[in-house]
Amino acid sequence: MSLYTRFRVANFRGLSDLDLMDLRRLNLIVGRNNTGKTSVLEAIAMAIGHPSGASRLRSEYRVSEPFLLNVDANVNLYCFALHHADGTTFVRSEPSKQVDSTAERSWRDFVGTRTNADGSKESSEDLVVLSRSLYRFGAPAERRKLSALPCFPQDQKQELERFDQAILNADAESAIEATLARLDHRVKSVRALVVGNADRALYVDIGLPKRVPLAVLGQGMQRLLALTTHGYEAKGGVLLIDEIENGLHHSYLEQLWRGLLVVAERLDLQIFATTHSYECLVAAVKATADSDGLAVHRLERGDDGAVRAVSMSGDVLVNAVEQGVELR
Amino acid sequence: MSRLPTVPPIVHSRLLLGEGRDEVEIFRRLLADHGATDFQVLAYNGRYNLRDFLKALAVSSDMRNVRRIVVSRDADESSASALQSIEDAIAVARFPDSIRVKGLAVSGPSESGALEDLFWTAVPNGNQRTCVERLFECVGHNEPSAKALMHAWLALQVRPNLRVGEAVSAGLLTLQHPVFDELGKKILQHLS
After folding, report:
1. Residue pLDDT, tens place only, A266-297
2. For residues A258 and A287, is the Cβ–Cβ distance under 8 A?
3. Which residues, numbered 282 to 311 in chain A, qualify as contacts with chain B under a Cβ-Cβ cut-off of 8 Å?
4. What is the pTM of this model?
5. B114-to-A246, B50, B92 alpha-carbon distances in Å
6. Which residues pair with residue B28 across a beta bridge?
7. A33 touches chain B (CB under 8 A)
8. In chain A, alpha helices (H)
9. Which residues on A lie below 8 Å from B61 (Cβ)?
10. Looking at CB atoms within 10 Å, which of A306, A312, A324, B159 has the fewest?
């Protein structure tokens, strides 16, 4: 899979016009609260054809304006209905025709509908004219595989299904066990079992007479398992991880990033993760210092209120971390 | 692994960079004595680290409110060479246009020297000063640098292991002298 190198999003949530340049295999998105880190993940999910991946990252989403997404110069345009999580209607809109890139565009150039909160529908003729002329409208970007890991704990049933799907890959079982063993060296194997009347769950052999439920080994262990199984789900595509450091002790973070780089190369993944943690950022830079595999994208709000991205990679990033300056 | 950046948070719009801890302590007091507010002094940990420090600073998220930076260093042999070296480092760092960055070479009475030259100028005449000068004459060192003179003078004090910045904090050295007044005004002029 060729890696995406650039991503632009305009008029989406709080992002008026954001351009992420110099994308790498591992992309860490940092920034203060409310600068749109998770929104970028959502936008990426939508841009490569996975609106459901975006909804996994937030329990509710609401988009009231038409917005534009651009991956490597291929454009997807989506029109959203006004909605809340309940009664969600996702309406995708495609360009109805090729549009001159210099011309002002309106909703009339697109076929789309929206569903209002009261359930009434409106056609594109009723929508507000969008006068931006930022993009050249072309064919939608290819749809790629995607998996999205939110910052909060996952639905256990879905995680089990993801585990089952992952271990269909011959190498996955040993990869999962090796990953978990890095966090707790006692881990020997992981099995999905039905015990008595209890629901099917994951159990881990840690050298005790009986396996113990994964859940009792702590949030970090569950987070790591989820990272691995989501990686397999996204194999050959894109993995989105919100607040990647959640549940993990800082001493493990460098190892985590080293492992992520290896897994991303082996499974041919492009990873976009967010963090608030300086330790996590430093760990990512140190773990990938010998490769060109990492870019850090800082979202920052300018004096005009617009969010822009500062992308850093390679020596610039290593030097900034060595000098100990704030990068988030 | 550091849990926080080692460079302190930058909260002011005016930034003065000094070579090390001594400069931070001295410049901070000097500017405060001149009634300056909304400034911050940071150390770039030696002239050989200046280029890397500025490059890192230029991409730091802490720079969002910074509008003025003054980069100081000792003039050593030549103020002009020192300034050129600072300006080269500034050019490589590529700060945004919204930040004005200027260099400042700290020299003694001539166009050469260092911060210690100012302190040696400020050391009052008396036995200690005379003894230090004689010490160097005694060992055949006829043109000692102000750094050497100041270290010898500091070694005579009650706490003999202090650096100049620490000696200022301890009250052994004072900034109440026209040479420091002049330096303070020059820094403020650069920061304005």
Report:
1. 999 999 999 999 999 999 999 999 999 999 99
2. yes
3. 282-283, 286, 298, 300, 310
4. 0.83
5. 50, 17, 25
6. none
7. no
8. 37-47, 51-57, 156-167, 172-183, 219-233, 253-266, 278-287, 314-323
9. 31, 298, 300, 310, 326-328
10. B159
